[in-house]
Queue: 2 jobs
Job 1
Amino acid sequence: AQSVTQLDSHVSVSEGTPVLLRCNYSSSYSPSLFWYVQHPNKGLQLLLKYTSAATLVKGINGFEAEFKKSETSFHLTKPSAHMSDAAEYFCVVREPNFGNEKLTFGTGTRLTIIP
Amino acid sequence: SAVISQKPSRDICQRGTSLTIQCQVDSQVTMMFWYRQQPGQSLTLIATANQGSEATYESGFVIDKFPISRPNLTFSTLTVSNMSPEDSSIYLCSQKGGGENRDRSSYEQYFGPGTRLTVT
């Protein structure tokens, strides 16, 4: 069975400083991993995805994530936070079974940017 | 990417009534999905809606409470039946990204804007 754990429910950083949102996963197979962002009163937007190609994945808005199989981690980073990054971030896992398209969501990390 | 719309965007309903949420996607897809996001919580999959067959429900969700229709490859509805305040949530539909010929392991899902339901 697949599962994902977001280690921090809330992260606060100052504008211009680095962002680190942590995610660990559990999967019986080599999973696909995703990060989604949800701005207040908005829908979910795909930030980036890992699908067994390069382990360092670049996404939109300057975000990137590194897949580390030995640590079962997929942490999300950004070198310099911007006020517009304030949102809820979800780490998501999917096992690559044909016909099973189920996404399992983490509990989310709320990112606050301090001016 | 994908363009997904949902109607209504929000509603306030009385307990005991039912609400049907519509989801329209801009490309033909075999699978559509319905999720629930309870206040302050993450997303939970309700069911997978396949065109031409019965929806597949996740544990804890039943067809009598959440009947789903999938009349064609671009449209689906979710009904929340006999509502109670515990049904107050955001309901989101999604579709699988990419095309049928893409590597299936790379499939992401694209989400609609959600329907914010409040039951009083």
Note: The two ends of chain B are 36 Å apart (CA to CA).
Job 2
Amino acid sequence: DIQMTQSPSSLSASVGDTVTITCRPSQSISSYLNWYQHKPGKAPKLLIYATSTLQSGVPLRFSGSRSGTDFTLTISSLLPEDSATYYCQQSYSAITFGQGTRLEIK
Amino acid sequence: EVQLVESGGGLEQPGRSLRLSCTASGFTFGDYAMSWVRQAPGKGLEWVGFIRSKTYGGTPEYAASVKGRFTISRDDSKSIAYLQMISLKTEDTAVYYCTRNEPQWYYGDYWGQGTLVTVSS
């Protein structure tokens, strides 16, 4: 099974900041990496799929990229509503989620 | 408008069975894979399993934690996906979400609101 190591587990940032969240798979997953935003009591929301494709309706402040074996979610110009837990997910072989990153907006 | 509505959750005793349903509307159900994802209290998202569309064989895959106890099936004529759970354990307590998965890349682009399953004596 493919394991996803996501970091950091939590972070705190201010409105207007830029943050990055990283995921590293335990083996090659090609570009089968997706990112989700999850707020308490709500259904998770797809942000980015196939490493860097923005889901329809998602603000351009969200972006995804890959560098070597690491996949990154970048959120720029943070807004209060970005407070949530973010998950990476590989869909190359079955499906695995990362452990999640709790983002607090100060 | 794409909608996924889960039902069938509730309180069940350890060792018993439960079947969840995911009723879909607003899209051609048979064209998509369907997944189940759960979130235990205070924990992260955990993939439970998915079932491929008939075009891709209609076969299921499961997480190791539920393999042999959970079965995913689909009725394309009714646009419903099912999650049959047997030999329930207390650690199966979670909110269970169904998701629509793009059939080649398997990202979950639509999610239901979830149904709570509580396994307790």
Note: Chain B touches chain A at residues 35, 37, 44-47, 50, 61, 63-64, 97, 101-102, 105-109, 111-114 (CB under 8 Å).
